Amino acid sequence: MPVDLNNAQPLAWDSATLDADTKAMLDNLQPNILRAHVREHLSVLFVRFNDAAEGKAFLRHVATTKMKSAREHLQEVRDFNAKGSRGTPYVGIGISKAGYRDLGHSVEDVRKFGDRVFRDGMKRRVAEVADPPVETWERTYQREIHAVILIGDAEPGPVAALREEILGALPESARLLGEETGQGMRNPAGDGIEHFGYVDGRSQPLFVKDEVDREPKKHWNPAFPLSNVLVPDPFAPNPVRHHGSYLVFRKLEQNVRAFKEIEQELADGLGLVGADRDRAGAMLVGRFKDGTPLTSKPKAGGGPVSNDFTFDGDDGSKCPFSGHIRKTNPRSFGREVLMARRGQTYGERTDEPWDDSPPETRPSGEVGLLFMAFNGSLLNQFEFTQQSWADNPDFENPATGHDPVIGQGDRDIKVAFPKVWGKPELSVPQAQVAQTVTMKGGEYFFAPSLAYLRNL
Ligand code: HEM
């Protein structure tokens, strides 16, 4: 039975009755797509090939000697949970449209990718998502990237060793165009955070039964069909069994100092005092720093970070419609838009991102998010989120403003904020908060099936 990508039932990957096609799918799928792989330490290599035969041989070598399958990853997680046995590092590969061409696929061949956004590449989509002009991107991203190689692990040692080995195998004809280093950050509770100091990575579409089973599901169903992240790999030996996923990569620099100033100005402007002041930042993100959803509670605190909520019954007086998590996942609709986010923070910090130190002690650049997400459709998921939701001040309700965290484009309309949580009284309309996240470059990739890579 061909794998039904639209089946809403989470994948019981370990079940004895799993059908042969689904088994084959898992044996040929890259890890980190269906389930997040540990990548506390992450190395991201951007490569250009220049010789089809050598480029193919290199990818085949990496795939056959360094990469595990989605199924092996799921087994490793199971064994870690049961016995504490450490898993192996993650190696992932994404190929751009230009990469497929350079590897010898014809223009007609590349049209087999249904996603026209992928076929365009990120540089040609600047206008749609209001990205900065390509000439302002970092040099690596201005160039024609053919492939990205992701290496991740809980410890820095294995990542460094694999990076050396993989770079050592790069043929003479190929070039390393640039690289990034990601490094996870955690708050004192042990939750992963981003540079503004907020818990990140908590809300994800889940595809695997054991992950879904662990989640409370009173309000929000975290289980999603595979179609949110998988498509048949058009060049694989058997696209019925061999799947891949569209990967968006964006380097997003965060001006933490400016964001922290904005939090304070907003709190002052709304007359928030004491613990209530934390609500200012929470109105921008949609969660408090510790991850508490603003739509559920007026104050931070109270146990594990919840993802079991919706915005139903919240007219914007609890969580503003513009709040980052409300913009990017309105929850009562648009489930098919949700991507599997697999990014990592980059940049060194000498301060503690979660504490209340004054803004002037915060970095104003050189730190940020290596945003990565797997999609079944870049057009209908990543780009739709950025363009039609985050960049759209009229999304859901007129004149509620851009996404204050990632919105791009002119923030010319004024917006009002709720003065008291859950009460209708609004502040006088004020200029939208300034943009503090700057896109420094990126590319669209396809993470092909292992079957494709091994057969190159
Ligand atoms: C969730 C921060 C970029 C889409 C979150 C959360 C934070 C956050 C703190 C809440 C944690 C969670 O619910 O998992 C940031 C920062 C960014 C950034 C600081 C840039 C530097 C983006 C981009 C997109 C995006 C570019 C997509 C266009 C999402 C989505 C969620 C989310 C879909 C989950 C919402 C939910 O399901 O409730 N982000 N984000 N984020 N973000 Fe971002």
Q: How does this structure look, described?
A:
The protein has 456 residues and is α+β, with helices and mostly antiparallel strands. The chain folds into two domains: 20-189 and 198-248 and 443-454, no CATH class; 253-441, no CATH class. The chain has 15 helices and 14 strands. It has helices at 20-27, 52-66, 70-83, 97-102, 107-110, 116-120, 126-129, 139-142, 156-169, 209-213, 256-269, 278-285, 324-328, 382-390, 450-454; strands spanning 41-48, 90-95, 147-153, 175-183, 185-186, 192-193, 231-232, 243-254, 340-341, 344-346, 368-375, 414-415, 430-431, 437-447. The strands form four sheets. Strands 7, 8, 9, 10, 11 and 14 form a six-stranded antiparallel sheet that branches. A four-stranded antiparallel sheet has the order 2-3-1-4. A two-stranded antiparallel ribbon has the order 5-6. A hairpin with a 5-residue loop joins strand 5 (185-186) and strand 6 (192-193). Helix 11 (256-269) packs across helix 12 (278-285). The longest helix is centred in the first third of the chain and has 15 residues, at 52-66. The radius of gyration is 22 Å and the shape is globular. The mean pLDDT is 97. Bound molecules: protoporphyrin IX containing FE. Protoporphyrin IX containing FE is lined by residues 194, 196, 198-203, 252, 254, 285, 287, 324-325, 328-329, 338, 341, 368-369, 371, 382, 385-386, 390, 405-406, 437. Protoporphyrin IX containing FE binds next to strand 8, helix 13, strand 11 and helix 14.
